[in-house]
Amino acid sequence: MSLEVVQIRLGDKCYPVCKRKLIEQSDYFRALYRSGMREAGQGQEEQLLRGGLSALGLELVLDFINTSCLAWLEQEGEEEPPLLEELVEAASYLQVTPLLRLLLSQVRLGNCLELHHLAQVYGLQDLHDACLDFMASHYHQVLRRPDTQLHLHLPHALQQHLKERRMRGTATLVAIGDFMGTSSLGCHPQAEAPWSMLRYDEEAEQWLPLANNLPPDLVNVRGYGSAILDNYLFIIGGYRITTSQEISAAHCYNPCLNEWSQLASMNQKRSVQTIRARDC
User: Fold this and answer.
1) 110, 202, 254, 269: which could form a disulfide with 78 (CB 3.0–4.6 Å)?
2) CB neighbour list of residue 128: distance below 8 Å, 6 or more residues apart
3) Domain ranges of the chain
């Protein structure tokens, strides 16, 4: 097929685009060209009559068809990209599958709620599920986003659904410490590494590695406080074995992402040991 360029017209503006790429990437245009409709036989100009389809959205989608990328969409960051609604509307109407597939990997904190809303409006089930998975995996971060930045509120029903989605799976016993040569735990040979995080496999009756990126601040630390909230593990305070020095550091483990993150430190250094002594 030749690299024939056609002019897509919306209103009084025309957009040049490669005909072969139109057919390859848009189900709408593929059906149009193969149907023998009058609009497909105009040659130099294609008349796209769509009430409500924005010229800007069409331009964005045709730019993607021509270049196979959208630089502004793929930029990292939490800020909500502009023109998202126009893009999703045009991509959905023209059935540009590669672009809709790209959106699945572009869900961010700054756009997850709007993309979720747009997926519902345009019946994009894959995008809808991708947004739910992202928000469940980043549950606390999503809850902490100010409404002024989100531009959308997190409905209570959606909040509960995300929490339930996050809690799916099997409860697991976790241990953190120095397990080198510790036979009492019955560690799998691969798990016998100093200062690691292990999970207990009930079927195999073995301890296996859970997270290999244990924060350096947790190495040689004992007497820390721990808590679980919404399937996050929090490790706070403690004291270093080598110096007996209390610390104020706070860390959070997210099993959905297998990631540790450092939280704001406590105002006062403390450990479970000192708290018990003061309580007594």
Assistant:
1) 110
2) 116, 119, 120
3) 5-166, 170-213, 215-280
Q: Distance between CA atoms of 215 and 212, rounded to whole angstroms? A: 9
Please count the residues of the chain: 280
Name residues whose C-beta falls within 8 Å of residue 3's C-beta, 6 or more positions apart in sequence.
18, 19, 20
More confident residue, 20 or 9: 20
SS3 category, 88: helix
Query: How far apart are the C-alpha atoms of 189 and 173, rounded to whole Å?
Result: 19
Single-letter amino acid code for the residue at 279: D
Tokens of 61: 């989608």
9-15 contacts, C-beta under 8 A, 24 or more apart: 9/45, 9/46, 9/47, 9/48, 10/48, 10/50, 10/53, 10/55, 10/58, 11/55, 13/55, 14/45, 15/58, 15/59, 15/62
Q: What is the pTM of this model?
A: 0.80
Is domain 5-166 classified as CATH 3.30.710.10?
yes
